[in-house]
Amino acid sequence: MTEIIDGNAVASDIRDELTDAIETLADAGSRPGLATVLMGDDPASQTYVNMKQRDCEEVGIESHHVDVDGDAPPEKLFDTIANLNENDDVHGYIVQAPVPDHVDYRDVIRRVDPIKDVDGFHPENVGRLVAGDARFRPCTPHGVQKLLESAEIDTEGKDVTIVGRSDIVGKPLANLLIQKAEDGNATVTVCHSRTDDLAAKTRSADIVVAAAGVPELIDGSMLEDGTVVIDVGVNRVDADTDKGYELVGDVEFESAKAKASAITPVPGGVGPMTRAMLLYNTVKAAGLQEGIDVDLP
Ligand SMILES: Nc1nc2c(c(=O)[nH]1)N[C@@H](CN(C=O)c1ccc(C(=O)N[C@@H](CCC(=O)O)C(=O)O)cc1)CN2
Question: What is the CATH number of domain 139-270?
């Protein structure tokens, strides 16, 4: 029987456990604050930002939000960032990606105070992660690690093929999984759009992480029996539904499930974990800035 790894359930457990840490902060007179910044009106980004705010409310994190006009000059976004860096009520914030084409996301990230960079994207935090001393693990890779742990899937000595080399998922996840750590010690192959014979790389893996942003790129014919399949993709494809689209992963679920020993669904797999780990990083940021020790799950 193939195990379906339930990201909604694991994320809910993490939110419950974070509540204790949030109480510790409250006892010491502090309430963690998270701000989301959205430039433009990308519908998927609006959904994610709304969900992040709802998650904050559920666990007792104060949420703030700033909308920046999609046609505004980059300086408008940089001013918003400067204000958030100075705002003591905001312990962490994220600038939702993607930003409009006329803004270079790297210019944005460099301006975020690294201690408030709860996405873990600032070069200082990337450097720390690569050096094995992560301050904030990026939310999706950390969520993938927590999902594997929840399903008791050990990465030690395993061959992991990551399909996708993004700064948000592929690169940081590869770095985390090769680390000398209980949730690392894997042998990692990172594939991308120029990889020759992708199927050979996925077939040779114990664990496949699909994070290419290409709907149903990986199907069962590309997997050996018993592979663990983690699907990071959340793609909106046109469909005859109320919303006019349906959510599809980077994995063709039914054929992959027939081969996999365990698999994450879309929706309800990695997505909710990305949001839960953002709450985790926010609580961690609040503890660091307030000088309060908090127990994190
Ligand atoms: N600043 C950032 N921008 C982006 C990140 C990020 O980590 N930081 N990651 C992705 C998108 N993402 C986070 O914002 C994200 C993706 C998916 C979900 C999610 O909960 N998905 C649900 C379905 C939601 C729906 O109904 O559409 C699921 O998979 O079950 C949350 C966050 C890009 N940008």
Answer: 3.40.50.720
The verdict on the CB of residue 47 being under 6 Å from ligand 1 is: yes
Residues sharing a CB contact under 8 Å with residue 202, sequence separation 6 or more, in sequence order: 161, 163, 191, 208, 218, 222, 223, 227
With a 6 A CB cut-off, is 94 part of the ligand 1 pocket? yes
Residues 68-96 have pLDDT tens digits of 999 999 999 999 999 999 999 999 999 99
Q: Is the CB of 140 under 6 A from ligand 1?
A: yes
How far is ligand 1, taken at its centre, from the CA of residue 29, in Å?
31
**Burial category of 89 from C-beta neighbours within 10 Å (exposed 0-12, middle 13-18, buried 19 and up):** exposed
Q: What is the ipTM of this complex?
A: 0.99
Tokens found for residue 102: 């006329």
Q: Are 2 and 260 in contact (CB under 8 A)?
A: yes
108 is in an annotated binding site: no
**Ligand 1 atom, smallest distance to 270 CA:** 29
165 annotated as ligand-binding: yes
The rounded distance, in Å, linking the Cα atoms of 8 and 88 is 32
The domain 19-134+273-290 having CATH identifier 1.10.3720.10: the answer here is no
Phi/psi zone of residue 99: left (φ > 0), alpha (ψ -120 to 50 degrees), beta?
beta
Task: Delimit the domains of the chain by residue range.
Answer: 19-134+273-290, 139-270
Tell whether residue 164 is among the known ligand binding residues: yes
Residues with a catalytic annotation lie at 52, 96, 119
Q: Say yes or no: CB of residue 267 within 6 Å of ligand 1.
A: yes
The Å distance, Cα 28 to ligand 1 centre, comes to 32
The token pair that represents 249 in the structure block: 């992963």
Which residue in 208, 220, 219, 200 sits closest to 155, CA to CA? 208
pTM over the 0.90 mark: yes
